[in-house]
Amino acid sequence: MVTIVKNSPFSNKLNIDVLDGKSQKALKQLNIPESEVTIVLDSNKKLKELNNSYLGIDEITDVLSFYSGESNPETGNIYLGDIVISLEKAADQAKDKSHSIEFEVLTLIVHGILHLLDYDHLTKRDAKIMFEKQDDILGAINN
Questions:
Q1: Number of neighbouring beta carbons within 10 Å of residue 90
Q2: Where would I find the H helices in 1-143?
Q3: How many Å apart are CA 109 and CA 115, to the nearest integer?
């Protein structure tokens, strides 16, 4: 199950139902359909604050993931954690890459889910694995 929290005025420009459905498909592609994740759509300011507080990096970032791994006592599902996305940054990146903001946000959601599953891109080898997986999932859920 995916919960999307809209904390940014930019979120009104997005089709939240489509993002929700495709996020669910991403979880199924990763063979974790019985899990839960919260996606928070927020501002550059909030992402900068979180990045500084949790990672000690005083810069704006596009997405942060906060792993939980606990079980939801009501559903029994694993609560993977929270993904926080800067919609301002996503809009800028979408413009730079000449695609829609919806596609950029979906890319960041998949990226965030992969981080929750312990994928990372700190080394070239790990980045290759993570970004190939990200591209495979995006291809599968956008068809």
A1: 24
A2: 16-29, 44-55, 87-97, 101-116, 124-141
A3: 10
